[in-house]
Amino acid sequence: GKISVEDVLHCVKRDERKYSRVRDLLSMNEELKKARKAFDEIKYVSNA
């Protein structure tokens, strides 16, 4: 099947540098999702 976030974290948990990088990327991804959602809401409201 599909590789999940948990699978990646499990594979890199012993390598502190990689684990830290994966965590950073995941938190950045969450921030981008929130920003995109807010931007889409603003765009939707201004078009109405």
UniProtKB/TrEMBL annotation:
Main location as per UniProt: nucleus
GO (cellular component) term, any one: transcription factor TFIID complex
Lineage: superkingdom: Eukaryota
Any one biological process term the GO annotation gives: transcription by RNA polymerase II
Transcription regulation as UniProt keyword: yes
Cellular location(s): Nucleus
PANTHER family for the chain: TRANSCRIPTION INITIATION FACTOR TFIID SUBUNIT 13, TRANSCRIPTION INITIATION FACTOR TFIID/SUPT3-RELATED
Protein name per Swiss-Prot or TrEMBL: Uncharacterized protein
Biological source species: Oppiella nova
